[in-house]
Amino acid sequence: EKRHGKTFPRADLHTSFLVNWSPLPSFFAKMGKRIDSSMIPARFLALMAQLISTSMIYFSKDGNIRASLDASYSNSDYDSKDGELSTGVTLLVVFLALQTLSIFQGYTLFLPTINASHIFFSCLGTILTCWFIIEAW
């Protein structure tokens, strides 16, 4: 067989099979790429869901503060609990901002184990935050 003016031996069936042989079918070879490509958007969506649920705390703040106080509470007790809740939510927003920066900086973007843990903990945080809002802890 001639290619580019050079003569190459003709490949028979056995050598072409060994060159093109893969231990895994092509479906499984492509599967890892699909999972990695879907983890980054899933991480972003989980983070945005947690940010939205965190912002919902501000709308339900009054009910949660009243649920944590006794029936006869003073304004100073209310202000104290309001400050505690505001501090907690502010810290949560700061940490969510750091997590958002880590996505856009790309330090942990292509590490599947870290992405999976971020997705898991963001979903868990979203569920617990929604539970906090609904149950008025």
Would you give an account of this structure?
This protein is an all-alpha fold. It has five helices and two strands, in the order E-E-H-H-H-H-H. The chain has helices spanning 13-20, 26-59, 61-68, 75-105, 112-135, and strands spanning 2-3, 6-7. A two-stranded antiparallel ribbon has the order 1-2. Strand 1 and strand 2 form a beta hairpin. Helix 2 (26-59) runs parallel beside helix 5 (112-135). The longest helix has 34 residues, at 26-59. The radius of gyration is 27 Å and the shape is elongated. The relative contact order is 0.14. Mean pLDDT is 80; it is low at 13-19.
Number of strands: 2
What is the spatial order of strands in the main beta sheet?
A: 1-2
Q: Beta-strand percentage?
A: under 5%
Low confidence ranges: 13-19
Largest sheet at a glance? 2 strands, antiparallel
Order of helices and strands: EEHHHHH
Beginning-to-end CA distance, first to last residue: 79 Å
Mean pLDDT across every amino acid position: 80
